[in-house]
Write a structure and sequence with these properties.
heterodimer, A: mainly alpha, two-stranded antiparallel ribbon, 71% helix, B: alpha/beta, 6-stranded mixed sheet, 3-stranded antiparallel sheet, 9 helices
Chain lengths: 304, 240
């Protein structure tokens, strides 16, 4: 166990001794700030259009979401870092020196996993705090009201401590992909396909393919529900949905009636299937476990 | 002590190592010679657990390097001195290796001073010359004060002064009871440095023994080497 801590320390030295770590951290912070700035600008310029009569009530409604919503965007920065941390070992050849210093590859693999997860998580927390600090001056006096968002209740704390988990889990997911492929480009492309292109395609398929073939539409719907891009969102909490399940729903999945207006044609997709928080969490863990076992086995058996 | 027994390794259909066996004893410098593509680097990589073998054993101090309870004390190596992340500072590169084995930090200062890079510790590795890369690689190999040193072309890129320095260093380490196993192409240099020789060609050991025994009947080591590995004129050269 001591030995593992040493290897973790070694991996931490590697993380802190490259400039890209600092660049990615700053980009993550900027993502948090940009998302918050967007909400603040929206609040001050057009409260009417979002159904709120005045700016103050808009911000009261936005609440703590303002501070923590950057995680969904900032994740891209930590994903890039997680991929680079592994792929640069191969591109520079320094994996040789790593494996001579620590011939136990399982240990190297887990030490990197731990360091990437902790880095991403702590970065998420720090970004939330810095975003809150930046927001305060804008919200101290809105229409004569103090609307500074303070964490209020379990749901807000779940967002504060929970959303960075999303960054951490997506980062190690992409790190596993980087272990499998060794390169920078393939894992990055895989990330964008899995988290951006595939879900859009499946979402389109869910609604439009349904008109042509109901089975295709339903399959696309179920695939989307189980896709990593959707299940990982179990760690993005919102102060409406976290830990609250609709009593009409099953514990494992929910189905939502869709009105005719939502669909381009008159044919009604009767029910849209999605996973609940709990089952999405379980599926996410399964995704991570699957990829982890695959990556670890490849890493252990690889010639260098 | 390094013991290799019936070690074989294929890369696809290509035989890299064909049942090679030899021993490198503690307290002596063992030279590992062979033409390009003979399997020297492959053997060293198998010894350090970087690639797996198909059959046979490669033991360092009686067990595979991967099973060593204290790897940094057991063995270290210099395989490719350019294998370091260029944007990292030399000191951080060594610190990462030191932390992994809980090696005291003053050891880093010590080895940097030993290889003559004391004033370049805070420079990015990419700004180094070939000779400095080599010195950094040697510093890294010496960091854990290992009992066995596996060095692939350690004299590459060093100036005459550097070559003399590493020769003296290796002799001194061997005298202290360490096992030194090195490959080199500079035969005149090998002649001045090694006690024992292992010569391989096309993945097979063609000759092992004391330097003086191998030299017998030849005017120089070069002549002995060329005559022992003669049928290599038409081999397909491959990297490493």
């Amino acid at each position: 166990m001591n030995k593992f801590l040493y290897v973790c320390k070694s991996e931490f030295v590697k993380l802190r001794s490259i400039k890209v770590t600092y660049a990615c951290s700053i980009i993550a912070l900027l993502c948090y700030w940009l998302i918050a700035a967007g909400v603040i600008i929206l609040g001050f310029t057009s409260p009417g259009t979002v159904g709120k009569s005045n700016t103050a009530s808009f911000f009261v409604d936005a609440g703590f979401n303002l501070v923590v919503s950057g995680a969904g965007t900032a994740v891209i920065a930590v994903v890039i870092l997680a991929i680079l941390l592994m792929s640069t070992e191969y591109s520079s050849g320094s994996i040789t020196s790593t494996l001579i210093a620590t011939p136990n590859r399982t240990m190297v693999f887990w030490a990197k996993t731990v360091i990437i997860f902790i880095y991403s998580y702590v970065l998420g927390i720090i970004c939330s705090i810095l975003t809150w600090l930046v927001c305060v001056p804008f919200m101290i006096n809105v229409d004569g009201q103090n609307v500074i968002p303070y964490p209020n209740g379990l749901a807000d704390w779940a967002m504060f401590f929970g959303n960075p988990l999303y960054m951490g889990f997506v980062a190690i997911f992409c790190y596993f992909i980087a272990v499998i492929f060794k390169t920078k480009a393939i894992p990055l492309v895989t990330y964008f396909v899995l988290f951006f292109i595939l879900p859009s395609l499946l979402a389109v398929a869910t609604s439009t393919a349904y008109q042509i073939n109901q089975i295709v539409g339903k399959v696309a719907n179920v695939c989307l529900a189980f896709a990593p891009s959707e299940t990982f969102k179990a760690f993005i909490f919102s102060n409406e949905g976290a830990f609250v399940t609709n009593s009409n729903d099953n514990l494992l999945f929910t189905t939502k009636q869709i009105s005719v207006d939502d669909l381009p044609a008159n044919k009604l997709l009767s029910q849209v299937f999605s996973l609940t928080h709990i089952s999405a969490t379980v599926v996410t863990i399964l995704w991570l476990a699957l990829l982890c076992i695959l990556a670890l086995n490849i890493f252990k058996k690889r010639n260098i | 002590m390094i013991e290799v027994k019936n070690l074989s390794k294929n890369f696809g259909h290509q035989k890299a190592l064909d049942s090679i066996s030899f021993v490198a004893h503690a307290g002596v410098v063992t030279g590992f010679l062979g033409p390009n593509g003979a399997g020297k680097t492959t053997t060293m990589k198998v010894l350090l657990g970087l690639i797996s073998s198909d059959s046979g054993t490669a033991y360092i101090d009686g067990r595979p390097f991967g099973k060593s309870p204290n790897p940094s004390r057991t063995a270290s190596g210099l395989l490719d001195s350019k294998a370091a992340l260029g944007s990292r500072k030399a000191k951080d590169h060594l610190l990462a290796v030191a932390e992994a084995n809980n090696i005291a930090k003053d050891r880093i200062t010590y080895v940097l001073e030993l290889v003559g890079l004391k004033n370049d510790a805070k420079r990015q590795i990419r700004t180094f010359s070939l000779g400095m890369y080599q010195r950094l690689g040697i510093a890294e190999a010496l960091l854990g004060d290992p009992h066995n040193l596996i060095l692939d072309e350690p004299m590459n890129g060093l100036d005459p002064e550097g070559i003399k320095w590493i020769r003296d260093l290796l002799r001194q380490l061997a005298k202290a009871g360490k096992t030194i196993f090195l490959s080199s192409h500079i035969l005149s240099e090998v002649q001045q440095t090694v006690d024992d020789l292992v010569i391989i060609s096309k993945g097979r050991v063609v000759k092992t023994g004391k330097l003086s025994e191998i030299n017998q009947g030849f005017s120089s080591l070069e002549e002995a080497f060329i005559s022992l590995t003669d049928d290599n004129s038409n081999i397909e050269y491959k990297a490493g």
